Here is the input.
Amino acid sequence: MKIAVIGSGYVGLVAAACFAELGHTVICVDNDPEKIAVLHRGETLIHEQYLPELLARHRGQRVIFSGDLSEAVRASSVIVIAVGTPPLETGDADLSYVETVARDIARSLNSYKVVIEKSTVPVYTSEWIRRVMQLASATAADFDVVSNPEFLREGTAVTDFLYPDRIVVGADSDRAAEVLRQMYAPLTTGSYYQQAGAIPEPAGAQRPARLIVTTAKSAELIKHASNAFLALKISFINAVANVCEAVNADVEQVALGMGTDSRIGRRFLQAGIGYGGSCFPKDVAAFRSVARECGYDFPILQEIIRVNDEQRRRFLKKVRTALWTLRGKRLAVLGLAYKGGTDDIRESPAIDIIRSLLSEQCSVVAYDPAAMERALQVITGDLTFAEDPYQAAVGADALLILTDWEEFASLDLARIKGLLRYPIVIDGRNLYSREVMQKHGLLYVSVGRATVELESSQASALNLNK
Ligand code: UGA
Here is the structure.
C-alpha cells in the first residue's frame, strides 16, 4: 500500500518505519524543514531501539521524507495523521495541528482515501476531521476517517508496534475497516514473523496480533481510557505504598500478592515517585476534560492526578527527614528522564524534584545515561552533571535515585558508600532490597517500605541520631 504519514515525531516516525517493514511504501511528511533534512541525512532524532536499523533498511526505498503534504496525499491511498496534540492550559488537547492537516488533506484529495487519526485525540475528533474536510470542499464519498490509536511506549515503540497486544481499528465504514485489515495483515496473519530479518520478538509477545474493530468513537475512548487506567494502577499502588509506610508493611510484597491475581496483573504496580512523560499526564487531564464536557465529572481521574503530584512532595519530605535541613546540602541525583531507557524529560518527576531541591538551596550533582543534555536546557541553578553515578556521589550528603535505569539497580554499593559524605540512599524507584542496603550499612529510604536505619554506633559516629 502507499501510505502518507503526516508528522515525523515519535509516533509518525515509528509508524512510518514499521509500515515500511510490513512491506508498504511510505512518504513521511513534516512541515519542519530542519527535521526533514536531519531525516534525509540518516539521523533518527529520537532514542528508540531498532528505529535506526529499520530506517537504514528502508530509507530511500520504502520510506521517503518530504515537506510536501499535498504531493504525499495525492500519491497515497492511506493518510496517517500523527501530529502533536499538546495540552492547553485547560487540560484539553490542542487539536489545531490536527485541524490544519485535515484541511490540507481535503484540498489535496484526488481519489478515495482513508484518513487515519493516530495522534491521541479526544472522542469526537474523527467526526471533527470529517466535518473540517467537508467544509474544505472534500466530498463525503471520497474519504473515510478511521481512528487507529497507538499504544507505543517510549523505548520499546518498535516492538510494541510489530508485536502489539492488540490493534484497534475504529471505523464507521466497512470499506475503510477492510483497508486497515489489509494494512496490518502481515501482523494479524503472522506472515511478518516468518520473514527473514524480522525484528526479534520481545518476551511475552502474543502473536499473531489481534485486531479489534470498533466504532470510531469507541476507539478514541479506548486510547484515553487505557492510559487513564494504567495511570490509575500506578496511583493506586502509590496510595497503597503510603498506607504501607504508615503501618510498616512492604509495598513490594503487597504488589506481588495483588498482582499474581490474574484479574489484576503484575504490571504497572511499581510504586515510586509517580508517572511522568508526554502521555499519562496529558491524557488523564484531557480525558477528564472530555468527560466534563460530556456532562460527567469522573472524579477518579482527578484523584489519579492528585496522588501522582503528592508522590513527588512525599519524596521531598523524605529527603528532608533524612537530612534534617536542606540548605547548603550537596545531593547526588541519579536519573533525569521520566523513566529508564529514554532521554525524554517531559513531565519527569525527577526534573520537578530537582527544581524543588535547588529552590531550597541544595546543590545537585546529577547523572543520567541519556537525558543530561536535555535537562541542561530546562534547569537553571546550582546543578552540575557527573560522568557516572560514582562521580556524582563524591562528597554528597545523600544519593537520590529518581529514574529506573537498569544500571542504577546494579551499583557497586560499597564504592558508593565510600564516596558519600553520609551513607544515605533515598530511592524513589525501589531499585534495591532493604536487605542488600542493610548489609552494606546504608541508611536506605524507599517508597512503601520501612526505612533501613544505620546501626546506632554508626549513626552516632556520623551525628545522625536526632
Ligand atoms: C504510555 C503507555 O504505556 C503506552 O501504552 C501509550 O501508548 C503511551 O503512553 C502513549 O500514550 O503514547 P510511555 O509514556 O512511553 O507509554 O511510558 P510507560 O512505560 O507507560 O511509563 C509511564 C510512566 O509511568 C513513567 O514515568 C514510569 O516511570 C511510570 N510507571 C510505570 C510507574 O511509576 N510505575 C509503573 O508500575 C509503571
Q: What stands out?
A: The CA atoms of residues 162 and 350 lie 31 Å apart. The longest strand covers residues 2-6.
